[in-house]
Amino acid sequence: MITNFISMNGDGLFVWLSFGVTIFACLVVYIKTKKTLNKYEKEFVEEIEKLSVVERKKVLEKSKIATQVLTSQSKSA
Amino acid sequence: MLNLVSPSNIYFILEKIIKFINSIFFLILLISLTFALILSPPDYLQGDSVRIMYVHVPSAWIALACYTSIAFLSILNFIFKIKNFFLINKSIAPIGLLFTCLAVVTGSIWGQPTWGTWWEWDARLTSMLVLMFFYIGYILAIKTIKNESFAIKISSIIAIVGMINIPIIKYSVDWWNTLHQPASIRLTGSSSIHTSMLMPLLLMLLVLLLYSALIFLMKYKTEIIRMKKKNIKRL
Lengths: 77, 235
What we know:
Strand content of chain A: under 5%
Order of helices and strands of chain B: HHHHHHH
Number of strands of chain A: 0
Radius of gyration of chain B: 20 Å
Structural class of chain A: mainly alpha
Mean pLDDT of chain B: 90
Mean pLDDT of chain A: 85
Shape of chain A: rod-shaped
Structural class of chain B: mainly alpha
Strand content of chain B: under 5%
Largest interface: A-B, 39 and 45 residues
Oligomer: heterodimer
Distance between the termini of chain B: 32 Å
Number of strands of chain B: 0
Number of helices of chain B: 7
Radius of gyration of chain A: 23 Å
Low-confidence stretches of chain A: none
Largest sheet of chain A: none
Helix content of chain A: over 70%
């Protein structure tokens, strides 16, 4: 039964290859996208932390998104 | 509630949607794969190779939908000069390219058992390949042109010119004699696909749409941070 499922009456190679290529490509893109996002989030937080207290306050007051990035980073840390 | 949907809360909203998609994704993927690989019947002519349809067709649909969205937003960007549209397009383009490549590759794999060839320069296959080149051109324009406003202009022109190719892809099977079969599913009129095959097809479409949404949201978040990073430097 398992052999039949894998061979799919001779079409198994093509079916598994199609699904395999799709899953592999999607996985690679997912990992790469997630890594890039994490890298940018980390760099952004580091840049904010480099600022002086006054500058940091100014940035956080001006940009609510900056505060949200900081919050989400501190949650995941 | 109103406060939650304000533009300044966009980052939190994106994060919540990403978490939600992550939480349901694997369950839907598992159900869809079970339907596509086990429960759906083989075709009376093509046998089990018909299962390739469950990744090939949704990939092609998403590729076309992404390009249409990019072209539409590019037109709006030309008229209203809203930078957010460019950020959205920048986040959609890699997804479109991925699914165009997948549609071409899985189509080629499907061609071998059904037509006896991996590739044929027929209208549908060639027009999909042209779409892939438009995607590559669009992404290269964004990545290589340093001046942002010029990059927006050139990429928008590529997107709008490439829009001509979309109806060619859609109607290529009706306009020319091609190896590719005509559309089995029609939004207007009756579809020639049986429910036992339509169900896994729609489930796989849902999975790939959820995946696209996930990638789009992560890329869009990256673009927002990149923009904010530039703003810090300006301050």
